[in-house]
Amino acid sequence: MKIAVIGSGHVGLVTGACFAELGNEVICVDHDKKKLRMFENGEIPFYEPGLDRLVHANLTEGRLSFSGDTNSAVSASKVIFICVGTPSLKTGEVDMSAIEKSACQIAKSLNNYKLIVEKSTVPVETGQWLLKTLEKKAPKGADFDVASNPEFLREGSAIHDFMHPDRIIIGVSSEKAASSLVHLYSSLNAPILITDIKSAELIKHASNSFLAMKISFINAIADICEKTGADILRVAKGMGLDERIGHDFLNAGIGYGGSCFPKDVSAFINIAKKLGCDFKLLEEVRGINEKRSIHFVKRVDKLLGGIKNKTIAIWGLSFKPDTDDIREAPAVYIIKELMKKKVKNIRAYDPKAMDNIKNIYPNISYCNSPYEAAKGAHAVLVLTEWKDFKHLDLLKIKSSLKKPIIADGRNLYDPGKMKRMGFQYIAVGRV
Ligand code: UGA
Q1: Ligand 1 centroid to residue 325 C-alpha, Å
Q2: 261 lines ligand 1 (CB under 6 A)
Q3: Number of folded domains that form the chain
Q4: 265: Cβ below 6 Å to ligand 1?
């Protein structure tokens, strides 16, 4: 099938490359010329495991191409996926300007039957708005359908998530649209749920908000564990054994970050409010999350007997492992908090995210390894659970630290072992 993907960010590029891999002819569109030049050389402007290989292979096979011209990409395609960004405005509302711009461009190029699919995360009822806008702006007699097909791609495992989804959600208002999308996904072995467009849109916001709620819930339980001496890992395991609850997304820590959960929770709070629905539950989810960084730094401050003028090592800056993305990363907030408390020096290390965080904090010390970061520090803070951090020579680390203190925001190590090794060790929800 001929496909155009409008917006070649994380979602668009993964979607385009994966559809090409499934045998479709895909044109990925973006207005950023620098990005387009990189894509044409098979280079990717962000880190996503396996994506460079997939893009390169499909470019070579001629199934994937890149363009800055929305009109010709739309004219040449049957299915158009809108994958542009939908960031938060200061009010918490969704910034729909990129969607609006895409809709106007698509409308101009509607020559024969097209299926226009929202993949970006958008407020419920956007499909209705998109349909009306296209009807208003398209040439008379243009034949098209609108659909919603939300993405469930996690950064760091996006290709796997695309190829092996738990479910495919298809929101449509016609048989023709449904059968095109079912056909597109037919080679993936996954349950397909066909719904109306509004329900599909809601499934996305509801799913991300529910997962964020699970994380805030377990983080609130972690606080209770810290007060009582219970162990959050055992509590989460015991809860997760109940199939109705499940084990996933019960890892306590320093809070959720990234470009999705914080933005989508805020957007959903706003959407509910506008519709006159009481959803204070989600405000609490957000509130609990926002306090995680402050709570963590307070504990470190106490352990050190005052953090002012101390040197702090940080392991991990990205919002989660296997990505270089630092958007809404807990590390960003924790560094801000440390600076507020006037630490003397921050020595940071991350395998992928240092270049990105340098734009926010150009004046902290960046190191080439976790060992180098720990040298001469009064404490190490573990802020991202990169696999490598699990297999470090901790005795070597201990000997290079000024004080043998590790504050583990991701529960990477065993508290008993750490204490036996002579560390003053704090974790989240474990004593
Ligand atoms: C999330 C969803 O998981 C995807 O299904 C969705 O498609 C995507 O948002 C999106 O809307 O585009 P992502 O933000 O890449 O994916 O990452 P997650 O793996 O969901 O993690 C989000 C945050 O929650 C991270 O900061 C992570 O460290 C934190 N987290 C996750 C926890 O603190 N505890 C957990 O148990 C799980």
Answers
A1: 12
A2: yes
A3: 2
A4: no
Residue 301 included in any domain: yes
pLDDT at 319 over 90: yes
Token pair belonging to 99? 């969607």
Task: For residues 6 and 133, state if they share a domain.
Answer: yes
Domain identity same for 304 and 357: yes
- Split at pLDDT 50, 70, 90, the class of 42 is confident
DSSP letter for each residue of 194-225 = EE-HHHHHHHHHHHHHHHHHHHHHHHHHHHHH
Are both 112 and 38 inside the same structural domain?
yes
Contact indicator for 323, 159 with CB cutoff of 8 Å: no
CATH code for the domain in which residue 66 is found = 3.40.50.720
For residue 151, which atom of ligand 1 is closest to its CA?
Answer: 7
Residue 185 domain-assigned (yes or no): yes
Q: Please check the confidence at residue 40 and state whether its pLDDT lies above 90.
A: no
Report the predicted TM-score, pTM, of the whole model to 2 decimal places.
0.96
**Pocket perturbation via mutation, ligand 1, pick of 13, 86, 215, 327 by most ligand atoms within 8 A of CB:** 215
Mean pLDDT of the chain: 97
Burial class (CB in 10 A: 0-12, 13-18, 19+), 230: middle
Q: Which domain holds residue 237?
A: 229-261+282-426
Amino acid, res. 266: S
Question: pLDDT digits over 80-125, tens only?
Answer: 999 999 999 988 889 999 999 999 999 999 989 999 999 999 999 9
* Six token digits for residue 268: 């959903």
Q: Are residues 104 and 26 in the same domain?
A: yes
